[in-house]
Design a protein that fits this description.
The complex is a heterodimer of chains A (about 120) and B (about 950).
Chain A (H helix, E strand, L loop, with lengths): L1 H19 L4 H21 L20 H32 L15 H4 L3
Chain B lengths: L1 H17 L6 H27 L4 E8 L4 E7 L1 H24 L6 H20 L3 H19 L6 H32 L4 H5 L2 H6 L3 H15 L8 H4 L5 H10 L1 H11 L1 H4 L3 H22 L5 H21 L5 H30 L15 H15 L5 H15 L9 H25 L20 H15 L1 H17 L16 H18 L1 H10 L5 H23 L4 H22 L14 H19 L4 H21 L3 H24 L10 H26 L7 H12 L4 H9 L1 H22 L23 H24 L7 H19 L1 H7 L4 H21 L9 E6 L3 E6 H29 L9
Antiparallel strand pairs in B: 1-2, 3-4
Helix pairs in contact in B: 1-2, 1-4, 2-3, 2-4, 3-4, 3-11, 3-16, 3-20, 3-21, 4-5, 5-6, 6-9, 9-12, 9-14, 11-16, 12-15, 14-15, 14-19, 15-16, 15-19, 16-17, 16-18, 16-20, 16-21, 17-19, 17-20, 18-19, 18-20, 18-22, 19-22, 20-21, 25-29, 26-27, 27-28, 28-34, 28-37, 30-31, 31-32, 32-36, 32-37, ...
The chains are: A mainly alpha (about 120), B mainly alpha (about 950).
């Protein structure tokens, strides 16, 4: 189970990072959301995996670690706030700049770092 | 508390005087003067203690872990400087009232002057060297503000920048030196440092430390070759020059020499560096001063020269040199401040400071002229003036030193030459300005200044004379006290007196006066000689160096920062990759010892769905709606994972957040293109895939390594105390609202700030409102489908009930403020979707900003409430009650805190979505106001 869990986190990181590196704002927002899933799952797993051991006193013999859960709970909410802020920033950016490129301007054809495929 | 009040009063004065803009000038001046006067009274009350040999100390803990405290110390040396700072400060404030023209802002100048005064008091009274450095930097900053007071003049701005650059660079060197010093001694406390002379001087870092600290002192005190900022600082208003650039701030450097004299002085390297720097500055300054046509220029170079003299004295290896240095600090402050003020009057009354135009002023302002001449005589070192006494002591000390071995006789000779030059430029100041024919086309008709403008000069000149004639009465006590502080208790017998009999120093004085007058009378040859020298303009060199540095950094920065965010992100991720993967390579086994949990088919199915969802999001990212839908699959699977792995609270939160996020992103897509163009080159895609997979593999490996190792958690404490200490059985919720309630408070604040930021971003947004979707199909005519509208409306009370239930049970079962808030928000958002924001706005008139503010206030006040019961911030309280019919219920203050969380979450979420959603309701091209 642990291997499967870790692999899922890895896949989410892969997809998140790939999207974050795109040139348009919306995929970047999607990537950030995906990346925050990965981070939340990762932090959550610091309390190890357990089944039917919710940290509610009196309902089970053993309890899962409540601390990472509490931290991740606020992280989810804050993550939402940040996603919201970034996406609104993207809208504002598009409205003010006329395009949705992350650099605020469309790449110049002659001097296009993107088409040259370099850094 | 008495000691701390002295700088505090001054700081308060800075704030107070900045607020006197509406008052008349006299009121503003009186209010400002009140502050240094009270500080002066306080100082006087402490004076007897200090004179009796006591060191007054006070200390307040600040960052005890780093050894940084607010600690103050008043010994003889500090007392002397406090008096100088306060008394001259008072005179300057008074003088500035008459000096500044009506169109210049007096409160602004006063605020800066008082800020500077605070900084100076802080330096001289610090008992902690880091604190000393802090105030040291504050003097550089306030000096910058004061020099650039007439910011519309380019020379003021340039002078301010130059002063800040030089003294700021010196400040950095000083910080490095002080940190080393603190490390050597093992304490930043001045008392300890001053008592550790042997440890410091035997240490291998002593030379480096000394040189760094001296750099700080020399830049501040305008020692050669860092002197050039001082003449350019003369662009400041004259009261500022009188205060900062002659009497106090430039003395901070020599103060530093005096302060650390017991700890750092006495070694050969100290004597060599300090004395030669001082000697070079003394001669150079005196020589250049002679050729300045600008009155303030002359005084600036004369100040440089006198500072050199003081530095030289600190560098002499004789018994009384340090005493002479302190004495000269006092004398120089009095006569130079009065000369600056006199120059200010001349400038004020004639409109120029050029000595080629100013002649024969005696006839127009005899009274001011007399005062200026007395002060200038003190500067030259004429008997009966204070300058004479300290200069005699200086000459006497040069005769006793053994710095240069058999060539030591050179120093008194050079000192006499410097003395002669001082007489020559003083003579020029007197003769050129007040006599020497008639004025040449002055901008204004000269005359005596307002009566009270002369008062500060009168006070200072009276002091010059009093010290010069009856030194013992005036100066003995404080000089003795300051000398004890500098020499560490063993002060040799000394006697300041007007008449020591016919001796060598007197001869030297006589030669200096005679030679100086001769030099002045033959000045046309000197001027010709000086004009034939190649001119080296320090300002040009400085500007060129600064330009070069700026250009160099610009090219370097542009090479790294090319404006491409993609590139920055790539670089950052590469760095993350390197740091995160490093420990993995040092680890022997990836799998830990923990027993692995079994795998079952449900989990595999879930994982597969999550992976498919994630990859689909990436594969279809060009088509944004599909991509978003795929992402929501991932989000759902994440919340199911939380359910599966014993985290019901997380699952609920994730589920509700997921709904809100997808709705928000959907809304956002309305304002953004529906498709991402294919513009990345294959190379770029390949590179990104490489980087992303590397990161994915590394994170997965770390995660695997982490969760296969046994757990040693601090959570046992929370589990054990949740019920007994926090009164709840849902430990996650108890942690949120009780154990780590302070964290949660911060987090709801972040949420509120994000919502307000979004609100602000959407104000006056110039919008593209598309008339159709990207394929050109018009939007549906029926914006709000009836089916949805009627169902959602009937669902609302139910949803609110559910959220209320979730909220109430949160302390004991999965739920709580965050989740309940999100459920409520979702219920309202559904109404927005079903009916449109205009429909809602008619029925629901709350202002979301106020809701957020109310939520945060409730959470915060619950925390503050525990103070009322004498407990620390955010202590919680709970009790069980038996109510008839309902049964036992629990009341807890944490519940009130959770109400605050709930309200903030509702307000923020709704504000974010409603602000954006409302924009879609507008017709195209309408100006949008929320």
């Amino acid at each position: 189970m642990e291997l499967l869990y870790a692999s899922c986190v890895g896949v989410l990181v892969f997809c998140g990072v790939f999207l974050i590196l795109r040139a348009r704002t919306f995929p970047v927002v999607l990537g950030l959301t995906m990346f925050s899933y990965a981070v939340n799952l990762f932090l959550f797993s610091a309390g190890r995996l357990s089944f039917n051991e919710a940290a509610v006193l009196g309902y089970s013999a053993k309890y899962a670690d409540p601390l990472p859960q509490a931290l991740v709970l606020t992280a989810i909410v804050i993550g939402f706030a940040m996603t919201a802020f970034v996406v609104i920033l993207a809208i504002r950016g598009r409205a003010d700049l006329g395009n949705d490129h992350v650099d605020g301007q469309l790449p110049d054809i002659n001097n296009d770092i993107d088409t040259k495929g370099k850094l | 508390m008495t000691l701390l009040w002295i700088p505090l009063i001054s700081l308060f004065g800075s704030i107070l005087s900045s607020m006197t803009g509406k008052l008349t000038r006299n009121q503003s001046t009186s209010l400002t003067l009140l502050m240094p006067f009270s500080a002066l009274l306080l100082t006087m009350s402490l004076t007897p203690d200090v004179f009796s040999g006591e060191v007054v100390r006070e200390s307040f803990s600040w960052i005890p872990l780093l050894g940084i405290n607010i600690s103050l110390r008043l010994d003889g040396l500090a007392l002397l400087f406090v008096y100088m700072i306060l008394v001259i400060g008072i005179l300057v404030i008074f003088y500035a009232r008459y000096y500044l023209s009506a169109k210049d802002s007096l409160p602004k100048l006063y605020a800066y002057l008082m800020l500077f005064m605070t900084a100076m008091l802080g330096i001289v009274m610090s008992n902690n060297i880091i604190q000393l450095w802090f105030f040291w930097e504050l003097t550089s900053i306030s000096s910058f503000l004061l020099i650039s007071y007439w910011w519309h003049k380019s020379e003021a701005r340039e002078g301010a920048i130059m002063a800040l650059t030089i003294t700021g660079a010196g400040g950095l060197a000083l910080l490095a030196g002080l940190l080393l010093l603190g490390n050597i001694v093992g304490s930043y406390n001045l008392d300890v440092i001053l008592a550790s002379r042997d440890v410091i001087q035997a240490h291998a870092w002593y030379e480096v430390t000394l040189i760094l600290i001296l750099q700080g002192a020399f830049t501040k005190s305008a020692q050669f070759p860092f002197h050039f900022w001082l003449p350019h600082a003369m662009a400041a208003p004259t009261p500022v020059s009188a205060y900062l650039h002659s009497a106090t701030m430039v003395k901070a450097g020599v103060f530093l020499l005096a302060r650390f004299y017991p700890a750092l002085a006495g070694s050969d390297i100290w004597f060599i560096i300090v004395s030669f720097t001082g000697l070079a500055t003394l001669l150079f300054g005196a020589y250049i001063a002679l050729f300045k046509h600008d009155l303030k220029g002359l005084l600036a170079y004369s100040t440089i020269s006198h500072l050199g003299l003081i530095t030289l004295l600190f560098g002499l290896d004789t018994e009384l040199a340090a005493v002479a240095a302190i004495f000269h600090i006092i004398n120089h402050a009095t006569f130079k401040a009065s000369l600056f003020m006199a120059t200010g009057i001349i400038d004020h009354e004639t409109g120029t400071r050029d000595m080629r135009k100013l002649n024969g002023m005696w006839r127009y302002m005899p009274y001011t002229a007399t005062l200026a001449m007395v002060a200038a005589a003190a500067m030259a070192g004429v008997p009966l003036m204070n300058g004479f006494l300290s200069k005699e002591m200086f000459f006497a000390e040069t005769l006793h030193q053994q710095l240069l071995g058999s060539m030591s006789w050179l120093i008194p000779v050079l000192a006499t030459i410097a003395g002669a030059l001082a007489v020559a430029y003083s003579a020029r100041f007197i003769h050129d300005v007040f006599f020497n024919g008639d004025p040449i086309d002055l901008p204004k008709q000269p005359g005596e200044p307002p009566r009270y403008m002369r008062v500060p000069i009168e006070v200072l000149v009276a002091l010059c004379l009093a010290v010069g004639i009856i030194p013992n009465f005036i100066i003995d006590d404080i000089l003795q006290a300051a000398s004890i502080a500098v020499l560490g208790g063993q002060v040799p017998e000394f006697k300041v007196a007007l008449w020591h009999g016919f001796n060598l120093p007197l001869m030297m004085s006589a030669i200096a006066v005679g030679g100086g007058l001769l030099l002045y009378s033959q000045r046309q040859y000197l001027f010709q000689f000086h004009a034939s020298l190649p001119s080296l303009n320090a300002k040009k060199v400085f500007d060129k160096t600064l330009d070069g540095v700026m250009k160099w950094t610009d090219t370097k920065i542009n090479a790294i920062e090319n404006g491409s965010l993609q590139r920055y992100l790539t670089l950052m991720l590469v760095v993350v990759l390197l740091f995160a993967s490093w420990p993995l390579f040092e680890m022997k086994h990836l799998v830990g010892q923990k027993e692995l949990t079994p795998i079952d088919v449900h989990n595999v199915m879930g994982a597969l769905l999550l992976i498919i969802g994630a990859f689909s999001t990436v594969i279809w990212y060009h088509s944004r709606v599909i991509s978003l839908l795929m992402l929501s699959v991932v989000g759902l699977m994440v919340s199911i994972a939380f359910t599966r792995f014993s985290a019901p609270d997380l699952a609920l939160t994730q589920l509700t957040v997921e709904v809100v996020t997808v709705i928000l992103l959907m809304l956002a897509l309305f304002f953004l293109p529906q498709h991402s163009p294919r513009e990345s080159s294959s190379m770029r895609v390949l590179r990104d895939i490489g980087l992303a997979s590397a990161l994915g593999i590394v994170v997965a490996s770390i995660c695997y390594a982490l969760i296969t190792r046994p757990l040693a958690s601090i959570s046992d404490f929370f589990l054990a105390n949740a019920k007994t200490g926090g009164g709840g059985t849902n430990v996650v919720n108890v942690i949120l609202v009780d154990f780590r309630g302070f964290d949660t408070l911060g987090e709801v604040c972040v949420l509120g700030i994000a919502a307000l930021g979004i609100y602000k971003l959407l104000v006056n947004l110039p919008l593209y409102i598309p008339n159709s979707d990207s394929e050109g199909r018009p939007w549906a005519k029926e914006r709000y489908p009836m089916l949805l509208a009627s169902i959602s409306q009937s669902l609302l009370p139910l949803a609110l009930l559910v959220s209320f239930y979730i909220f109430l049970r949160g302390h004991n079962l999965p739920g709580g403020g965050f989740i309940a808030g999100l459920v409520t928000a979702v219920a309202f958002i559904l109404q927005y979707i079903a009916h449109g924001s205009n429909w809602i706005a008619e029925r629901f008139t709350f202002n979301y900003r106020k809701i957020i503010a109310a939520g945060i206030s409730i959470a915060f006040l619950t925390g503050v409430g525990s103070w009322y019961f004498g407990r620390p911030f955010m202590t919680t309280w709970f009790e069980y009650f038996d109510l008839p019919l309902i049964g036992e219920i629990e009341l807890a203050s944490a519940l009130v805190f959770d109400v605050g969380v709930y309200i903030t979450v509702v307000g923020s979420t709704l504000m974010i979505l409603a602000s954006l959603g409302q924009l879609t309701a507008n017709e195209p091209k309408d100006e949008v106001k929320i």
